[in-house]
Prior knowledge:
Layout: H1 3-12, H2 26-39, H3 45-53, H4 93-106, E1 111-114, H5 119-124, E2 138-142, H6 149-160, E3 164-169, E4 172-176, E5 181-185
Parallel strand pairs: 3-5
Antiparallel strand pairs: 1-2, 2-4, 3-4
Helix pairs in contact: 1-3, 4-6
The structure holds zinc ion (ZN) (2 copies).
Amino acid sequence: MTIKxxxxxxxxxxxxxxxxxxKWGTNSRTAANAFKADYGxxxxxxxxxxxxxxxxxxxxxxxxxDSIRYxxxxxxxxxxxxxxxxxxxxxxxxxxxxxxxxxxxLGRPVTVNSGLRCRQHNANVGGASASQHMYGTAADLGCPSxxxxxxxxxxxxxxxxxxxxxxxxxxxxxxDSRSTKARWKG
Length: 186
Ligand SMILES: [Zn+2]
Ligand SMILES: [Zn+2]
């Protein structure tokens, strides 16, 4: 990970407020120390990514919807409108945190094309039989105008590192918080 990437992750997590300039100065060190104080671990690459993915959480502060900046829970509802109450599974906040980080880096509104899917809705839209969408761990994010799906994909790739599922499509990207790494083009 480059210093710029580390600064970007610290900025996303709310610790770094200076420009992402790739220089590890006083503000970067202060941000890393504040991260360490909150999370109880060093601000190294592995821990920063784990914090963004929600795998590790601040010792004092639990991750919740109040820590998500850009998305509301309702945006991840199942869109079937008839087979379920909209929430057939818990929404994984680790996955939402990834979406939030991608949205922050893009600096543009991102639409959740598909979040949760009940089994029936997943079948109706032709989802994979074991789709992560049924478990609340996946979201399809529409590409905002002014950026390309490839650019969006590259940002997500930086944020996700060596974990999770990431697919590139003509309409945007699929992200999910599976524990293994998967990358594909749809
Ligand atoms: Zn449904
Ligand atoms: Zn998907």
